[in-house]
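pipeline stage [seq->struct] | target=Phage minor tail protein L | organism=Salmonella enterica subsp. houtenae serovar Houten | residues=76
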Amino acid sequence: ETDGCVFPGRIMLANTCTWGYRSDECGYTGPAVADEFDNPTADPAKDACSRCARGCALRNNTGNFGGFLSINKLSQ
């Protein structure tokens, strides 16, 4: 039951960001920070996003995280 709530017209994932890394939605334009497993790196060739909130936190970009961190609380 949603009680008239309106949800975004996209898949709502709790712990996975749906934005493309360094896209307009992501907004991150800084230097290489971490690889796809959130291991530190300064190598631009290894720079990748883990698609998790931790990846955004490492880049000080949590405001643009493309997931819905509290969505899993709806089913509880």
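stage status: PASS
auto-comment: The chain has one helix and no strands. The chain has one domain: 1-76.
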